[in-house]
Amino acid sequence: MIITVRKALELPAMENAVLIAGEAGLDRPISSVNIMEVPDITRFVKKDELLITTTFPIKDNPEAQEKLIPSLAKKGVAALAIKPVFYDNKVPEVMIDYANQLNFPLIQLPRSTSFNELINPILGEILNRQATVLRRNDAVHRQLTDLVLQGGTLGDIAQMLASLLQTPVSIHSAQFQVLAKAAPSGSRRYAELFQDLESFSKAIQKSFGSSVGRCTALLNNRKADVHIQPVIVAGKDYARLLVWLDQNTSYETNVIEQAATVIALEIVKLQAVSETERRFRSHFIEELLKGTITDRAEILSRGRTYGWDLAQPLLPVIIGVPDYADILTAHQTEEEQLEALGRVWSALIQATSEKGIITVDIGARILLLVQADPLSSNRNLVPELLRKLKREIAIDTKMFSAGVGRILPDIMDLKTGVEQATLSLEVGRLINKPGEITHYDQLGAYRILCACSSHPEAKTFVREFLGKLIKSDQDSSTEFIATLEAFFLAKCNLRQASEQLFIHYNTLRYRLSKIEEIAQVDLDAAEDRFNLQAALKLLKLSQSRGGA
């Protein structure tokens, strides 16, 4: 809703004005009108002004005449209109040349032109258009606000904005995942792009990143023009509004800004609702795990209020938040810690909130209850979820580990299933690499050892078989414990164990003989090997739980 130089020339007041140079700049916007009355006018002009003059202050100064057009163009002036009464009614050629070079509109006015008769109609047109913009802003704001107050979703906001602008729009998270998308009714523009918009999330993020305003990118081997508007909540970038455009098309940025404000309000509302629901869900699961609720019918009924079908077989999965302690220590105040953790949980829940998956946080971990097929191990589902988690949170250096319990045929067995998944996570972190998924059935002897690891006799057992070796490692850096672990990991193959330890074969043989001598064991005896392996596993469990 702006007036351009082209539109100004169509006004009745400019009927006898002639464009003599700079035709390529006719679409420059005009926001105000000014008159040149001093030689150094460039100090007083503003961007997008139409400057009217007789150039009387510089009529005898060729050097100033030569510099005038370049200096005005540099300041962003919209155009220059001259009544050349002091040049025999001819604009100096140097001005015309520079105006053409710089695509700067240069207009020649008739000698009879009255500046007042020219200024008033142009200013009136500018004011009328500004009033129209204000009315449009007010109407758009009311429409969007009413939509949200009536329970409209982000999808409804996107659809209304697409109709108002008559162009497709999409709303994305800060990581550019699609939250909503819409196109004007009957429009097929960008239909192919919208079909693959989810898969383009990374490409969009890579192309646009932190860009704001109008951008051009190559997506799916085609150019796409898009206006990117950040959605700011409490000073933080929570979402992005993308308005998809045809090349060289004009659009109303004020309407986009209005929509971004309403989207921010909707996001705040959704966050408040989500946080409340999250607390209720977590509290409900905690009650189940503590045995506070024992009536199966009540459990199933309360589950339905959250949209959960707890009558179906469920696969319990516990996911550990990577570097949870680091998240806390990296922020000084409790408020900053809570905010950082909140961002992690929001991303976790968003990444796992798919059909058939119950997602709740319990302490420093997240619990997934996945609707399971008792005839399937669901082993492909959990790795897929972890990959999505890493993608959503965009953490490349930190790894999510997961523990998976056995399928629960009955919700009343939830406590057992969660304990199995938790044990799988804890032991998996000991015996596997970071980011691995450990199933309860893979734990083997650890299932038995964990049950008795806190018994005093377990410590005595470790001390009897490994105590002297541990002391030697501490006092003399002999690395006997690491040698034993590598030996058993290589299935007692000396060649493989020596390669794994990066030591000579004979060095390994010497170490093993010293182990036999110090611990008073025979590594060829099956009983002694079994006892040493059990002691090593108990030692790992003890160390993971803060033991000696």
Q: Can you describe this structure?
A:
Helices cover about 50% and strands about 15% of the residues. The model has no long low-confidence stretch (mean pLDDT about 80). Helix 2 links the parallel strand 5 (about 50-55) and strand 6. Strands 2-7-6-5-4 form a five-stranded mixed sheet, with helices on both faces. Helix 5 packs antiparallel against helix 8, helix 11 (about 335-350) crosses helix 12 and helix 15 packs across helix 19 (about 525-545). It is built from 19 helices and 17 strands. By secondary structure, it is α+β, with helices and mostly antiparallel strands. The longest helix is centred in the middle third of the chain and has 38 residues, at about 255-290. It is elongated and about 115 Å long. The termini are far apart.
Blueprint (SSEs and pairs):
Blueprint: E1 3-4, H1 5-9, E2 18-21, E3 29-30, E4 32-35, E5 49-53, H2 62-74, E6 79-82, H3 93-101, E7 106-108, H4 115-149, H5 154-165, E8 169-173, E9 178-182, H6 191-195, H7 201-208, E10 213-219, E11 222-233, E12 236-245, H8 253-290, H9 296-305, E13 314-320, H10 324-329, H11 334-352, E14 357-362, E15 365-371, H12 381-393, E16 401-404, H13 414-431, E17 437-439, H14 446-452, H15 456-476, H16 480-489, H17 494-501, H18 505-519, H19 526-544
Parallel strand pairs: 4-5, 5-6, 6-7, 16-17
Antiparallel strand pairs: 1-3, 2-7, 8-9, 8-12, 10-11, 11-12, 13-15, 13-16, 14-15
